Amino acid sequence: MKQTSITLNNGCRMPQFGLGVFLITGDEATRKVCLDAIRLGYRHIDTAHAYGNERGVGQAVSKSGLPREELWITSKLWPSEYGEGKTMAGIDKMLSRLDTDYIDLLLLHQQFGDYLGAWRDMERAVAAGKVRSIGLSNFESSRLEEVLEAAQTKPAVLQVECHPYYQQKALKQHIAPYGTVIESWYPLGHGDAGLLNEPLFGRLAQKYGKTNAQIILRWHIQEGNIVFPKTMNPKHLAENIDIFDFALTSEEMAEIGKLDKNQRYFTLNLEEQEAHLSQFIPAD
Description:
The protein has 12 helices and 10 strands. By secondary structure, the chain is α/β, with parallel strands linked by helices. It starts with a strand and ends in a 7-residue tail after the last helix.
């Protein structure tokens, strides 16, 4: 099973498919599912300080038996860690939690706080060898423009909601000149039955001997999205990665393209997001 990779704007090659560990509670549960995933061939794990499970990810990487350079770790800084000096200290703590010498991809998790100061420290962390690539998560306002303008190192990725009902075509075009690529959260539309049961996906699943979810994940791969579906279900864990032995035709990709409804599942506006997130400070 030959998996695909994406060459980022700094030349790093990133596994295009991985495992997300959002809402996996505790280091032991995280370690177990990550080890199971690695045994199945996963080589990319997406975590965050706010998830409270970075130590479990680091334990799985250490226990996997694989050379560190064969595994890609993405993590994210919380706004409480933003600011020159403050962010570098947060990165050092992250490296300690993950028990690793470097982070493959580090993102600003939310578009609040001193994100410009944080970005400057992230650029310094790249120069120091603590981080290989840097990017953004959930920046979809004028604050994205601020970072793009100020950044000496342009974001390698932008992690946002993206799925067949919300394909982010305009955003992709906007960031393409910077070499920035889309990472998808909610890649399966937050498990929405309407999306998963689209007749088109059922027809394609029958044709290729796959599940509807596998068809959607294969669409992401061929669209050039980086994708990391979260699951603790062993069956789904195995199914999700089993998408590299077939390809959708250009006509089928175009059919899926027509499903775009500009429909989000996460609908809080900027002010609501800030109020929702402002009281949360992740534990070290």
